[in-house]
Each structure stands twice: as C-alpha cells, then as structure tokens.
Design goal:
By secondary structure, this protein is of the alpha/beta class. The chain folds into 3 domains: 84 residues, SRP54, nucleotide-binding domain (Four Helix Bundle (Hemerythrin (Met), subunit A)); 194 residues, Rossmann fold; 137 residues, 434 Repressor (Amino-terminal Domain) (Orthogonal Bundle), CATH 1.10.260.30. An 8-stranded mixed sheet has the order 3-2-4-1-5-6-7-8, with helices on both faces. Helix 10 links the parallel strand 5 and strand 6. The longest helix is centred in the C-terminal third of the chain and has 19 residues. It starts with a helix and ends with a helix. The relative contact order is 0.10.
C-alpha cells in the first residue's frame, strides 16, 4: 500500500529536512512537491489544497521557525495533518448494548461487498459473538450461493430465501429469525449495481426505514481512487452511511481513496481489505497509516499480525531449540509457513521503520518459494542434519525442487551461518526479544 505516494513524499520532505532553518520559500518549494505527490496519488484536488494550506500555516508558525530542528518539526506537522485527514483514531463497528446489532452493507458490484460481509462476520466470531448473514441481493446470479459458501468458511449462519424478489421482506424475516435465536449481530448483504441508480437507493432506503440498522456500511474498491470517493459521497448524501470498508488496498500503490474519502464524504474508514482471504480485513488506524505513508513503519500492526498467526507455544519450543543449538531446516520451514500467514513479504517489511530508506534489498516472493521447495525435497534426516548432504544428495534435491545445485548450496551455506549466529545469542536477550514481540 501507498508505495508510490510514500516514495514521492519522502523525496519532497528530504529537501526541507536538509535546511537548518525553515523559511517561507523552502516551505513553499517543499509543498509544491507534496502537492504534486498527492495529486499523482489520485487524492481529491480540493483535499490537496486544504491539506497544503493547513501545513503551510502551521509550518510558518513561530514554534517551527524558532525550533532547533525545524525540518523534523515540519515532518511532524505533515504527519499530523495526514492523520487528521484520514480520521480521529480507529472507528471499528461496535455492537449495540441490546442485541442483535443490525448492520446493513451496501456497495457497487465488483467492490468485494459480499466477501467483506463474511470478513466482518469472522471478526465478530473471533470475539465469541454469534450472528447471521442475510442474503438480500435478489438480482445478482449466484449471490446467495456465494454468501452461503463464505458463511460455511467463517462459520456463520446464512439466512436466504431463493426465488424471492422482496429484499426488504427478506431482511425483516432474517432479523426476526436472528432475534428468536438470541444472536448478537445481523449483517445484511444488499444488492449492488454497476453504478449508483435511483432504484438501488430506493431499495436501500426502504430497508433502512423498515429495520433501522445500527450501522450502514459502504464497501468501496480502493483501487478505483476518485471513483470510490465519488461513490462514497453519493451514498453518504443520499442514503447516509456510518462508515466505509475500503477493499483491495493490498493492490493500491497510490492510496488516493484512503486520503480523500473521509474529507469528501464525511464518513470514516472503518476497515481496509488487504487480501482475498477471510482474515484479510484490518481495522483502519489513521495514525498508523500516516506513519506508513511517511516511511516510519507500522510496528503495532505488524505485532498484531504476529500475535494472530504465531503460536506462542511453538515459539517457546523454537526458542529452546535455538538455545540448545538444535535449530534445524525443519524448524526453518515452519518459520517460513508462519511468515507466509502474515501476508506478502513486501507488506510485512513495509511496516518496519526505515525500511523504505534501505536500497538494494530483494523482496522477491519467489525466493521464499524456492527455499521452501528445496527444503521440501529433502528427507527428514537431511532437514535435521544438513551436514550429511553430500554432492549426490544436492543434485537429487535440486532436481526434485526444480532448482539448481548452486541454489541448494547457497541455502545450506546461509543456514549454517544462521546457526552460527544463534550460538552467540544469550538466553536473556532472546527470551526478552521473543516475549516482547509476541506480547506486543
């Protein structure tokens, strides 16, 4: 996310950080680059103007001009303005005190609306809440089948009525069924269209007036940039929305929608979709996103992902093996699996502070796939004791993994270096490192 805008903003801010003193001229020059970076990232032009005006006003204030480190303060101002632009802290959907909480989800076709419903249900189920998905899309072929399949994967109950053409009635009857079962929440997946039209809005308005949802959530495709912002504005003004889920953010290098949508529509971004899997839905934290955009990393989200995917008991076993110098290629393979669960490698490393400033680092996912293939082509004995792998074994492993003997040699050499490094790790340091990382 935000690769493009991060690089351009970093270049713009580097110029002003090189000055010992801030003046109106170098602030103006830097903001020209900032303005261009934002516009190229598809941020709404009115939002860009207001943003740069606000930054300039604060940057030319007495506090900054008299500061010993004016460049750093300028970056701080840009960070705070980016954060405020995207919202005031995380705005996750809260369950109502008197269940069931009714959530109506709307959006255009192709935005990932139905999958977002299931992802949201999964988040609730992880908190021990029981709920229901209501299939209220009566127009799209196979919409019911898709929601039913996703519901089984969560798992969560799915209410549907095949061959029924009254979406309002379906939601009403689904809500009645949820109340009879004392469920905690109901998520209604409403029908989408290829574009905003009067018929769709009338149907959504009828559902809202009949069932009185606690939350009306719009799902918008983040990769569509200003189109997503325009759609959010139309839904907000016509229907009234309480929040937005921006999908496909893992494929959006520009980030214009995330930076514009709240300012233009008035609706906060509640969640962002960062992949196709049901666990790929994250709470939107404006302050963390502003930090990532400016290349400062996002350690909190990284730790949260680790806590969700890493088995603490397995981590403790691994720590003991490292301390006893019995760490094997089998253990290494297990670590690769854990890392892959956390998401794309580039996304994970992008959360590390300062990583964007490091040059020449190869984050090719195929390298990890190649290493995994080589280890899987080894026997159990070879994984546990790589020193037994002689020339003939290396040829067999290379052939079995579709790699070269040089690749096998490199892996074994690198692994031996890692084991040597572990020998120098003291117990107290390693325990503290792993413990603090997993506890956050």
């Amino acid at each position: 996310m935000f690769t493009e805008i991060s690089e351009k903003l970093e270049s713009a801010l580097k110029r002003i950080k090189g000055h010992g003193k801030i003046s109106e001229k170098n602030v103006t020059d830097a903001l020209k680059d900032v303005r261009l970076a934002l516009l190229e990232a598809d941020v709404n032009y009115k939002v860009v103007k207001q943003f740069t005006d606000d930054v300039k006003t604060k940057a030319l204030g007495k506090e900054v001009l008299t500061s010993i480190t004016p460049g750093q303060l300028f970056v701080k101002i840009v960070y705070e303005e980016l954060r405020d632009l995207m919202g005031e802290g995380a705005k996750e959907v809260a369950l109502a005190p008197n269940p069931p909480t009714v959530i109506m989800v709307a959006g255009l076709q192709g935005s990932g609306k139905t999958t977002a419903c299931a992802k949201l249900a999964r988040r609730f189920s992880q908190k021990g809440k029981k709920g229901m998905l209501i299939a209220a899309d009566i127009y799209r072929p196979a919409a019911v089948d898709q929601l039913e399949t996703l519901g089984k994967a969560v798992p969560v109950e799915v209410y549907y009525e095949r061959d029924e053409d009254d979406a309002v009635g379906i939601v009403e009857r689904g809500l009645k069924a949820a109340k009879s079962k004392a469920l905690d929440y109901v998520i209604a997946d409403t029908a989408g269209r290829l574009h905003v039209d009067e018929k769709m809005m009338e149907e959504l308005t009828d559902i809202r007036e009949r069932v009185h949802p606690h939350e009306t959530i719009l799902v918008a495709d983040g990769m569509t940039g200003q189109d997503a912002v325009t759609i959010a504005k139309e839904f907000s003004s016509t229907l009234g929305i309480d929040g937005v889920i921006l999908t496909k953010m893992d494929g959006d290098e520009r980030g214009g929608a995330a930076l514009s949508i709240r300012a233009v529509s008035g609706a906060p971004i509640r969640y962002i979709g960062v992949g196709e899997k049901l666990d790929a839905l994250e709470v939107f934290h404006p302050e963390r996103m502003a930090s990532r955009i400016l290349g400062m990393g996002d350690v909190l989200t990284l730790v949260e992902r680790a806590q969700e995917t890493i088995d603490i008991k397995e981590a403790a076993k691994l720590e003991k093996k490292i301390l006893k110098e019995s760490f094997s290629l089998e253990d290494f393979l297990g670590q690769i699996k854990q890392i892959k669960k956390m998401g794309p490698l580039e996304d994970i490393m992008g959360m590390m502070p300062g990583f964007s400033k490091l040059k020449g680092i190869d984050l090719d996912e195929s390298a990890m796939i190649r290493v995994e293939a080589i280890i899987r082509s080894m026997t159990s004995d070879e994984r546990l004791a790589p020193e037994i792998i002689d020339g003939s074994r290396r040829k067999r492993i290379a052939a079995g993994s579709g790699t070269r003997v040089q690749d096998v040699n490199r892996l074994i050499k690198d692994f031996q270096q890692v084991r040597k490094l572990f020998k120098h790790v003291k117990k107290g340091n390693l325990g503290g490192m792993l413990g603090s990382f997993l506890r956050g």
